[in-house]
Amino acid sequence: MCFEMGCQKYKNDIQTHKIEEDKLNQLLDTLQCEYGTLKSKFENLQGYYNECSEKLELYEYQIPAPQYLEGIGYSELRSILKAEFPSIALHLSDRDYKTTSKTELERFMKHDLTDARQYIAEYYDCDDFSYTLMGAISNPEWGALPFGILWANIPGGAHAVNCFVDKKRQVWIVEPQNDSIFACPDNWAPYFIVM
Question: What b/e string do you get for 122-148 counting C-beta neighbours within 10 Å, with b at 16 or more?
């Protein structure tokens, strides 16, 4: 009798373990299927992301060239900037530049994506935005523009932006964080330009 009861218990235990094993195998199959689906979706998203990144890079750097209207030399450009900002420290990198209209620069800004980047205090802030826009415009089609980086003391502290001299010899401030183009406010004190 004990032997039969022991055998029955053993059979019951085997049956219980078999049921648990079947449940675990079903769960494993479900998880493997879900993993395969998620892996496939991830690979598709990764491919889509890579494709979008490539298109974005091409799009950002295939902005049609501006309509250059006339050249402007080092001496004239220096005189314009010094007349606008008499006490500014100035570094001009080239001997010759080519001017275009403010409208052409606005067209560039419309296509450039610098302003879409995320501001991160101290790590990706005003100076980084201005470097990024300067880098974007420093390509063979747009690089001859009298366009640079300007540092100024403004209400609230120091600030870095971009600056541009148009075909009418007017100096413009370009805020790379929001694409605005404006004349230098009276309460700004620019102290350095690299162009």
Answer: eeeebebbbbbbbebbeeeebebbbbb
Average pLDDT, 10 consecutive residues per value, the chain (195 residues): 59 71 78 80 76 60 78 97 97 96 93 92 95 93 95 97 97 97 97 98
Which residues, in sequence order, are CB contacts of 18 under 8 Å at separation 6+? Answer: none
Rounded to whole angstroms, the Cα distance separating 173 from 63 reads: 21
- Judged on CB neighbours under 10 Å (0-12, 13-18, 19+), 81 is buried
Give the pLDDT score at 69.
79
What is the rounded distance in angstroms from the CA atom of residue 70 to the CA atom of residue 68? 6
Its CATH class, for the domain covering 70-194, is alpha beta
Q: How does DSSP classify residue 116?
A: G
Measured distance CA(23)–CA(185) in Å, rounded: 73
In terms of C-beta distances under 8 Å and separation of at least 24 residues, what long-range contacts does 26-30 make, across chains too? none
Q: Which two tokens stand for residue 137?
A: 């415009």
Best CA proximity match to 183, nearest among 156, 155, 159, 164: 164
The residue extents of the domains of the chain are 1-60, 70-194
**What is the pTM for the complete model shown?**
0.69
